[in-house]
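User: Can you predict the 3D structure for this chain?
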Amino acid sequence: MAIADPPQGALAAPGQAGAGPLLTRGLALVFLASFAGLTSFYLLLSVVPKFAATSGAGAIGAGLATGALFFATTLTEIATPRLVAWWGYRTVFAAGLLLLGVPALGLSASSGMGAITVVCLLRGIGLAIVVVVGSALVPALVPAERRGEGLGLYGVVVGAPAVAALPLGLWLAAHAGYRPVFVVAAVSALAGLAALPALGRGEPAVAPAAGVAAALRTPDLLRPATLFLATAIAAGIVVTFVPLAAPPALGGFAAMALLVFAAASTLTRWWAGRFEDHHPSAELLRPSVLATVLGMAALVLIDRRLALLAAATLIGAGFGVAQNASLNRMLGAVPRSEYDAVSAVWNLAYDAGLGLGGAGFGVLCHWTGYQWGFALAGALILATVALLRPARR
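Assistant: Here is the predicted structure, written as C-alpha cells:
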C-alpha cells in the first residue's frame, strides 16, 4: 500500500533522495515532529502503568494500560497509509500529535481504570500515526546506499526521548506527583505542531500498491518482523514491570535501569545502521535475539544491582540492533512504492511486541511471580530463534 508522495517543496520526492546531504530540510522537519511526539509518548510509557497500579488496579491494571495503548496502535497502523492518502501529511500528522497530547490531560481528572484505558487507547492512535509516517518517509528521503545510516539517525532522533523522557517521567512522578508529568507530556506533543505548517499538504490519494495483509504473507518480511517482535516483547516487559518488580531496597536503580535500557537501545540502533551499510551481508538479527534472551535470564536476579543493569544493557542492545537490522532488511526486499506497507508491518511488530510484553506478562506474573515470569518469557523468546530459518536478503 503506497503512501502519497512527499509534499512538494518541503519534502523531496523519493527519486531525488540521493541528491545533496543526508539531512535535508524535509527530513529535519519529520525529525522535529517525530521527536516531539515520541517525547510525549516516553514520558508516560512507564508512568501510566505505575499510576494504574498505585490507583488500586495492581499488576493486571498496569499490564492493561500498556496493552490498551499498543492494541490501539497496532490497529491504527494498518489504516494510517490510507489516512495519509486521503488527508495528506500535515493533517494526519497533526491529528497524531493532538491525540498523543490532549488525552494526557485527562489523566489529571480521573484515576479510574476506565478513564486510564480510554486515554491509552486515544494515545495509541496518535502514536501509530507518528511512527508509521516517520519510518516510511525517512528511507524514501535518503540514498539507498545510505539507508542504514539514515534509519540509524532516525533511530537516534526517536530514541533520544526514550533515554531522557523514560526515566524522567518516573523521576518527576516520584518527586512532583503524577499531574505535572501528564501536563509536560501534553505540552511536548502539542509543541510538535509548530513543525507541521512547513510540511505543506500531501499529494492527492493514490491507489495502494500492496497491502499489509500481503506483506504479512511474504516470508522475506514476516521472518525478520517475527524476530524483531520477540525483542519488542522483552522491551515491553522491561518498561512496564522493572519499576514494579525491583525491590524497594534498590532505590533509584529501577529508573537507572530504564535509562541504561534506553541508551543501549538508541546507540546500538545507530551502530547497526552504519554497520550494515558497510557490511551488507551481516546477520545481526539472531544475535540480537540471543542478547535479549540473556537479558531476560539476568532479570531473574532482579534483586541484585549488577544483574538488573546487565539485563537492561543486554535487552536494550538486542532491541536496538533488531530495530535497525529488521527494518533495513525488510526495506531491502521491496521497491520504494511499498515502503509504507513495510513501515506498517514493522511498526505492528514493534507495538504488538510491547503490548504483549505488558499485558501478557502482567497475566503471567500474576500466577508465577516476577522471577519465574522472566524465566518463562525468556524461554518463549528463545523459541523464535529455533523455529525461524534465517531470512533471505
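DSSP finds 13 helices and no strands in the chain. The first helix runs from residue 25 to 45.
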